[in-house]
From TrEMBL:
CDD domains: HTH_XRE (cd00093)
HTH cro/C1-type domain: residues covered: 15-73
Protein name in UniProt: Helix-turn-helix transcriptional regulator
The species this protein was found in: Polaromonas hydrogenivorans
Keyword field: Plasmid
Keyword DNA damage in record: no
Alphabetized Pfam families for the sequence: HTH_31
A single MF term (Gene Ontology): DNA binding
């Protein structure tokens, strides 16, 4: 059984977590976003382990395929990253309600 490398970058950790949560293999994820089938697994692995970081447009394609906002990959606050996952799953009306609630909470704290 091959040894899995531990992601060393924030982007790599977030990518691996999102991919695992979605239940998608590295090679399949690469193909979904338009990578060559022969190199997709290696490229996704390099992104996850921090050997390379993808260009932003590739990160955007990864986010779309994994149903997460692209900001999730770059968020350095764990609670905010979790929030982004939940926020992305909301409908437009719910997002507006949440924004109003956040505004109210901020005003109350001032």
């Amino acid at each position: 059984m091959p040894r899995r490398s531990i992601p060393t970058t924030l982007f790599g950790r977030r990518l691996r977590a999102a991919r695992s949560r979605a239940g998608i293999a590295q090679d399949k994820l690469g193909v979904i976003i338009g990578m060559d089938e022969g190199s997709s697994s290696a490229r996704i692995s390099r992104y996850e382990t921090g050997v390379h970081e993808p260009p932003f447009d590739t990160a955007a394609h990864l986010a779309l395929a994994l149903h997460v906002p692209v900001a999730y990959f770059y968020c350095d606050d764990e609670r905010l990253a979790d929030f982004l996952i939940h926020y992305a799953a909301l409908g437009e009306g719910q997002k507006n309600q949440l924004l109003s609630l956040a505004s109210e909470l901020r005003s109350a704290a001032e």
